[in-house]
Amino acid sequence: MAKKNAKKSKNSSASIARNKRATFDYKFEEKMEAGLSLMGWEVKSIRMGKVNLSESYVFMRDGEAFLFGCTIAPLNTASTHVVCDPMRSRKLLLKRKELDKLQGLVDRKGYSIVPISMYWQKGAWVKIEIGLGKGKKEHDKRDDTKDREWQIEKARTMKKAVRGE
């Protein structure tokens, strides 16, 4: 029992950053996990929570995937002798089979690759969850909002019915 509770609290604190706008703008068909190639000052900044995923995306170049637009603000104390570029493109660490699959879907079917969240794996490794999906149209966004509001309203009525109000 104690192990389950400890595991839950560990996972909730493992989250670094979330791209909330991504689920609003895209309908994801598939999600996958990728590692990130980072420099030392970037890891220190990530530990301090100085990450922004909101305007970032993933692009393919020469058979490799890169994260672009992710801002990692440098710390003054961590990067005294290194020239820091907070907006540099960072290489995603994926297996060749996964890279080929992503490349094929992006080229043939017009999918977009968007970062969804960044988190710690086993306390030491920075991982990023990327989603493979298509952009939503305005009417799709309205339908999603309508469905979400209906689910909330339905839950409220069921709660009142159970109480007998």
Set down the secondary structure blueprint.
Layout: H1 2-13, E1 15-18, H2 20-25, E2 26-36, H3 40-47, E3 51-52, E4 57-61, E5 64-68, E6 71-72, E7 90-93, H4 96-109, E8 112-121, E9 125-135, H5 138-163
Antiparallel strand pairs: 1-8, 2-7, 2-9, 3-6, 4-5, 5-7, 8-9
Shape: globular
Radius of gyration: 19 Å
Biggest sheet details: 7 strands, antiparallel
Instruction: Look at the helices and sheets and give the structural class.
Output: alpha+beta
Q: Count the strands? A: 9
Mean pLDDT: 82
Number of helices: 5
Question: What is the ordering of alpha helices and beta strands?
Answer: HEHEHEEEEEHEEH
Low-confidence stretches: 1-12
Q: DSSP strand (E) fraction?
A: 25-35%
Order of strands, main sheet, comes to 1-8-9-2-7-5-4
What's the helical proportion of residues? Answer: 40-55%
Distance between the termini: 36 Å
